[in-house]
């Protein structure tokens, strides 16, 4: 993985550089943010790049490179101001905007997502949850009541939803995705184990539980290979 | 992102090249596998690189490069044998090995994972699910009965678990992770929103729902920027 922006000191206003952060750095910024939130919770006000890198599980040159995209370089011998850096990363990631999230699917996964405390603390407000099952519609999930998926368009408009999470079976994911797009939702996170087609203006991210396990299996296999005989490899 | 292995034709036995697949290609191989499984389900026997690339949402030079790590080049005008390619990718990812997975935490997320059909179809067998809540211990989740986390080590040994999923609150994740490692589990997927420390020999992957939403927010912000005034950027 090659980061093409040169690592050079200087001041870059966030509003300008936030457009050009490489995907791998964006992913790591979310990890730094999590570590900074833990530090804040412990009442720690300053952190060195080595400490923060350690807490995030990366090396400190990589951390410094990632933070350089925000124009944040810390001060030698003093480190980073935890609260300020937290704020800088939040702004760069767009977390200070008003994200109103609807969850489609009130099964175990949808309920797990609706109850996930990490969303609210990062600026994501869950404003609606939908299900197709009439036995589930109207029941309570946290502080929300499950809406009927038949009322999708009406409820999305009323709740001013601008981001949606698909926690539905693969068989209905594309149809619901199309309805979301038609209703003007252009940011969609899908947990459905299926490839979805969306127009170019729509931001779609896919999370597949089995993908993560498969990637883990690949690395685990490599780590375990010396112990495996040819028979288990072949079968 | 730069792929360092040159794209050149030739035969690479899977057992040899599986060690050197770049992380981004590993992630995409899981997507091709998903697309191939859909084709198999439809009874389709051959697929062109363009069709498979389309189904996976990548361009076909990238697909061909990724598949070249497996020594798979297709045949011009004929394409790939769906079943054979499926098998090749499965072997390369280590999915033909015997993965016996324990889930720690029988809340909504743990139950969602335990009931996820995509695991079994990819070679992951859920062999145990644990919870600390005595009211939950003994209850049924799919075909499993929830075990007490107090019995973790005994049950892991009895079920010959070799992979674990942490679907527990952040506050207990490190302690349970330590117990898994001490019990000899070296492949762990964590959904806990916290940075975990593990010894170097342990493969740990973290999935954080809010990370995915944050990455989505970053891209959505970029896409929406023309519509946003400076006030919403600053706040």
Automatic annotation (TrEMBL), chains A, B:
Q: What is its main location?
A: cytoplasm
Ranges where the CoA-binding domain occurs: 94-195
SUPFAM superfamilies on file: NAD(P)-binding Rossmann-fold domains, Winged helix' DNA-binding domain
Residues in the DNA-binding region are 31-70
* InterPro entries according to UniProt: CoA-bd, NAD(P)-bd_dom_sf, Rex_actinobacterial-type, Rex_DNA-bd_C_dom, Tscrpt_rep_Rex, WH-like_DNA-bd_sf, WH_DNA-bd_sf
The family annotation for this protein states:
Belongs to the transcriptional regulatory Rex family.
Which superkingdom, per the lineage?
Answer: Bacteria
Subcellular location per UniProt equals:
Cytoplasm
Q: Which organism is it from?
A: Arthrobacter burdickii
Q: Which UniProt keywords apply?
A: Cytoplasm, DNA-binding, NAD, Repressor, Transcription, Transcription regulation
Positions binding NAD(+) in this chain are 105-110
Give the matching HAMAP family. Answer: Rex
Q: Name the gene for this chain.
A: rex
Q: Name the chain's protein.
A: Redox-sensing transcriptional repressor Rex
Would the keyword Membrane be found if you checked this record's keyword annotation?
no
Q: Subunit notes for this chain?
A: Homodimer.
Question: What's a Pfam family this protein contains?
Answer: Put_DNA-bind_N
- Purpose: Modulates transcription in response to changes in cellular NADH/NAD(+) redox state.
């Amino acid at each position: 993985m090659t980061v093409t922006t040169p690592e050079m000191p200087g001041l870059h206003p966030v509003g300008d550089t936030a457009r050009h952060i490489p995907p791998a750095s964006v992913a790591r910024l979310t990890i730094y943010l999590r570590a900074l939130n833990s530090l804040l919770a412990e009442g720690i006000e300053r952190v060195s790049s080595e400490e923060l890198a350690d807490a995030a599980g990366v090396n400190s040159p990589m951390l410094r490179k990632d933070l350089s995209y925000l124009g944040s370089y810390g001060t030698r011998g003093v480190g980073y101001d935890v609260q300020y850096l937290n704020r800088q990363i939040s702004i760069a990631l767009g977390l200070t905007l008003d994200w109103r999230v609807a969850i489609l699917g009130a099964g175990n996964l949808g309920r797990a997502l609706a109850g996930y405390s990490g969303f609210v603390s990062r600026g994501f407000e869950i404003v609606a949850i939908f299900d197709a099952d009439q036995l589930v519609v109207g029941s309570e999930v946290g502080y929300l009541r499950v809406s009927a998926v038949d009322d999708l368009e009406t409820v999305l408009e009323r709740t001013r939803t601008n981001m949606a999470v698909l926690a539905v079976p693969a068989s209905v994911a594309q149809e619901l995705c199309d309805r979301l797009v038609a209703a003007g939702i252009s940011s969609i996170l899908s947990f459905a184990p299926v490839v979805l087609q969306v127009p170019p203006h729509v931001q779609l991210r896919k999370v597949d539980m089995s993908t993560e396990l498969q990637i883990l299996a690949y690395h685990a296999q490599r780590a375990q290979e010396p112990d495996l005989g040819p028979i288990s490899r072949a079968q």
